[in-house]
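Model the whole thing, not chain by chain.
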Amino acid sequence: MADETVFDKKKSHRAKQAGRKAEKKKNKTKLDQSNLSARQRNPKAFAIQSAVRAERQFRRREDVISKKQHIPQVDKTPLEPPPIVVAIVGPPRVGKTTLINNLIKSFIKTNVTNTNGPITIVTSKKRRITLIECNNDVNSMIDIAKCADLVLLLCDASFGFEMEIFEFLNICQVHGMPKIMGVLTHLDMIKNAKTLKTTKKTLKHRFWTEVYSGAKLFYLSGIIHGEYLRNEIKNLSRFISVMKFRPLSWRMTHAYVLADRLEDITSQELIRKDAKVNRDVVLYGYVRGVPLMKDSSVHIAGVGDMKISELSYLPDPCPLPSKEKKRHLMERERQIYAPFAGVGGIVYDKDAVYIELQGSHSHKKEDEETNEKKALLKNVVETKETVDEQMQESGFKLFSGGAVIYPDMIKDDEYLQQNKNAESDASDSEDEGNDSDSDNDSGIDQSEKEEKKNKLPWDNNSEGGSEGEDNDDDGEMSVDGDDKQKRGVSDDEDDSDSDEEPQNEEDFGMKWKEKLGEKATEAYLDRQKTSKNIMKLVYGEFEIGNKSKNKKDEDTEEEDEELGGLFKKVTDTQKKKHKEKERLDLDECSFFYALDKPNLRDWTTETNKQFLINNFVTGKRSADEDASELLKLDDASDGDDEELYGDFEDLETGEKHKAEEKTETTQETGTKRKAELTKSEILDKKMKLKAKFDSEYDNPDDHRIKGDHSYYENLKAEALKQSELNKSVFENLDQGLRIEVEGFRPGLYVRMLFKHMPSEFVTNFDSSYPILIGALNMAEQNIGFVSCKVKKHRWYKKILKTNDPLIISLGWRRFQTLPIYSKIEDDMKCRYLKYTPEHVTCNMHFYGPITPQNTGFLALQSVNNNTNEIKQVGFRIAATGSVNEINKSTQIVKKLKLVGTPLKIYKKTAFIKDMFTTTLEVAKFEGARIKTVSGIRGQIKKALNKPEGAFRATFEDKILMSDIIFCRTWFKVDVTKFYAPVVNLLLPAGAKNAWQGMKTKGQLKREQNIKNDANTDSMYTEVNRAPKVFKPLVIPKNLQKGLPYRFKPKEKSTTLSGINPKDKFKNRIAVIKSPAEQKVSNVMKMLKTNYEKKKEVQKEATAQRLQKHKKQLEEEEWRKLKRQKELKKKICRHLSKVGNKKKPQL
Amino acid sequence: MVATVHNDLIVYKGSNFFRQRLLLATLSGRTIKIEEIRSTHDDPGLREYEVSLIRLLDKVTNGTRVELSETGTSVYYQPGILVGGQVTHSCSTQRGIGYYLEVLLALGPFCKEPLNAVLQGVTHSDLDVSVDKIKTSALPVLLKFILVDDGLELKVVRRGAPPLGGGEVVFKCPVRRSLRPLQWTQWGLVKRIRGIVYALRVSPTMANRVVDAAKGVMLNFIPDVYINTDQCRGSNAGKSPGFGISLVAETNEKTFYCAEAKSTDVGTGDITLPEDQGRECAQRLLDEIYRGGAVDSSFQWLCALWMALGQKDVSECIIGPLSDYTITFLQHLKEFFGVMFKLEVQQSGSAGEESDDEEVTPASKVKMTCVGIGYVNISKRTL
């Protein structure tokens, strides 16, 4: 046996050389399977084994996909984005400043002495960040939450999370959650390794529940030489520089600026005269969010609503490195800009020169001397301005003996203005070193600038501006003619105008006919021609970019040149004014030719028909649309393609026939609309189409069943397309014009001048407070009634009372207002609530700034940093919510029961009094439903005239005099119009966190120690109760009889008065009668006895008589019955006799 | 012309563009004052139709404050919140219903509740676009901005010719939170001509004669011409006699050009020949087609308004040559909203290549590009 096993070697497998299997295998190897997917090689393995499981898999996949989907948003980040705002937030003494210092050192390798205000640094080739520290003031926390993109939330691990952190997180949630990174510091304070581990874990999980699970929490394990560990900071900075951000809805609709520099440019003289004079303040910062429009009003958080009186952009003080390809940032490109902290490069601008003092010198407060120096420097820096002004003042002579011409004089001439504009624009672009010249379509023509040289100011009649308004003014027409001739000369310069020329010549001939219609016709024909500087035609002379227009009042110019003493020469200004006056009161009409109908061209004539014929589907199409052309090209290209598109040929040919016919008929008339595309272009197009087709239909890799996500994909594609368009459409535009059209796009560094700022803003300036300037969209500067839903924060200890002042942070603003809480009933009625309910949302109405719906807000009862108060309240955020609706009036009602009593009651009618006081009131309530307490319903009918205010009412049943009658009504409650912005930035430096607005009534009373008199009804008084007296126990006689002796009441029985009736007379005095009286009483006694005897006898006699009478009656009755019986007998007998007689006959 | 701004109050002079100014003030929520309204005229102050417009605006808003001076030559207008809802308004017969309807059309998408307005008055007027034109040509423009048509409707219940009117229309407009950005640079080719001829209190043959004449012209260009006649009877015909035509050219990119003509008012003494009217209207339509663009020339301003009121995205639209009204409207848009359009003249086709036959120059087109101001409907309620 054993031997056998040893020797029994298994026979090795020998593959079949012939037969079915061998053939199969041969076939398999014959195909080249190297580039096939596993699925194609072995389709069986991928076949669906179980339909149920496949279905489940599919469903799960779809679930996962749809969970990932968000509504696609148009990405609005500009090509050169503004620096990312990184806010460092935390309670005091957790190491915020140290962290900022370390971060700056790690990014740009310099030390800063001061971390006040925003610090902008370049961190990488494509990214800049603005670091800002948040101080421990709830106002700053709110403002920071509104502008921060990334928050580093610092927490002392040895202490744990403090209330400020939760408050800040809550503020963030309300105003749009920025990215939040937790940073745990002071970890070295925990000595025990195990406690360290558990602390980290618990803190992490607590943090996750607040932010989201998986949120990044950094550990800074300790401080060495006053600095955090280098590689930990390095890690943190890496995280910061790769962070991605999601757009937040409020910031994607509003522009905002976090000011990083402030200058007071009020003239020193004014300040000297009055230190409290309103200041002109310039603020600088990067535009963020969306483009900032020039004349939008803004809200400066902590100051109030302001109007930007001047807005211009400046060269970036902290620019991104140049576009050259390189791996790292150069050392000199690692820039820092932080005027409030006292660092930054040398910056020149309109108001001041700013010089960096590397670290060793700290920024000192500006005193008088530096201000003077600044003023001096300002003069030097403003050279650009002064050149302009000099130009303004210098005049020149054209001809010898001619008048000197000043720029102001020709200001009113439209044409020159345009030229000037163009010129100034050119100079502008030169100044900035931008070589981008305005192109033709921007409205500022290069060609015109050239033309300017050979044109005099007055030989031109503003061709663009007045075409539509030509009037029948002879003199002007001649000027017009001249102009046309001149243009004929100058037109060879710009060839694009050449095709318009013959038309003009024709017009020239017609011009002399003095006919209104003709004039209008001509004007309108002209309009249809190219009008190149159309933007000027529409907007006139507009400010371009930084240039501000010098407005001159035309009214001041009143010199009329006299010609020959009689006629006044009509100057251009006057003409314009005249025209304007004519237009002033015209009828408004939106037609193309408003009021004067021109003679139209006759479109039916052959020549004119050609203008039009191609606007119809029957006309000839452009080359890339014309089917026949395309087919021809198809034929020309190789045959493979034809095969590919064979499917479509049927359709195409059908159309083709049609198209050809038409083209034949209109062979002479129709002309090509568009240049033929070259063959290669069309081939390109075709290849693209083919690729698209392939990608759509041949998808060999993945044979999985897929859900239909085309709707989502389309949305996404649309959003992408829009964002690309947003970026590209103004790309080539001149910078100045671009800003006009688009606004100051995010990423630009702007200078904003605010006039008439309160002086306290400057004098009490504290750079540790952020200056947030938020733009207000349309209608948001207005104030109205805001209705919102609100929920009291569950950590806030008190409930909120209606009409108690509340500080609300909504949009950019923080303000105090008086809210009214209400509840929406089922019939959409807002019912007044005196207090906020707990744990449920309710409605809140207040008078405040108009803010778009769904904007979140939070409410505080006080922004005061009084530690006692905070300790008392615990959590400062009283409520959170969002805006529901805006209106100009409110409809909040309160239930009101009017009570009356019946005066007189008839059957179902009753007169009711006390419900109203006057007849007028009753009249208002006629027909109202009323009700008694017992539920009898009725109606108010009419007022009575006697007791004033009484009325007649009918009820469904008779009411009682004791009934009370109710009338249930609704009483409208008005919202108090109180709105006070929190102006904490104007408060003195130390007390910025102590803003105190309106106080609650309770607060005031507590402060002034006023106590209400208590309601006497509610007061406690001594209770005096009389002892209870019970009724005597009375046992009925029958019961007494049956009782055993011991229970039988004995002689002495108690009564109410407590005296035995037997003893009643005990105390009485015995009466002894006189003999006469005795005699009388004896007689009386005898008489009585006698009388009684007599009565007794009488009674007996009566009884006997009655008995007798009864007997008699009975006897009589008996006799009567007997007689009746006999009679009956007789009758019956007779009847029976009669019956017997009749029977036989039947 | 130019507005002066005092402390957020915009002051204008003159009665012209009264409607534009009130409309934009209502939308922007800015207070305006218009002074010197016909102050030098024999009949100074506001006209009846302008007062009627103020009334209408008061009906669709809440919290509007209007102060008229004693002479009526100056108006102070502080707009409220747009409410919409059910509105009935009998318009002044001095102007057509179109005067009021255009305002409602512009305001409609921004109301608190869907607008359901009944307007009574003159449906066809010389000065204003007729209700037919708004229905056929302006509603498709709005549809481009709101995309989904849930209840956008204009129904002509009765027609009424000037001077007495007696017409009635019902306008319903849905409410939107914001408008979509629009890219409309293709307008395609005219594929069909439709039209409607109405005859109010005149012989029905008039209508047929108008149709014949108009068709005669249009058939030169395209075979697909179909014109309806609307013979109104009894109360449906309004109070005054008259007849008119409105022609619509539809392109394959859903652009509708519309032209119209109407008979002269009764009592003026002039007589309109139906044939002339038909021909004139056809000519006007051809003129409109020649001007081209994605929007009918009368509604350029509406398109511009809705583009400006869009989200903060780029909108572009190519239109025919700008009308005076549109130019002023664009100026006003800048004053009220601070929005400026980039306007470029499209060198249509290839000017260089077609120098050989320079006869064929289509009217220059203007490309309007703007960034919306991010206007949202603040009156709508969210739950």
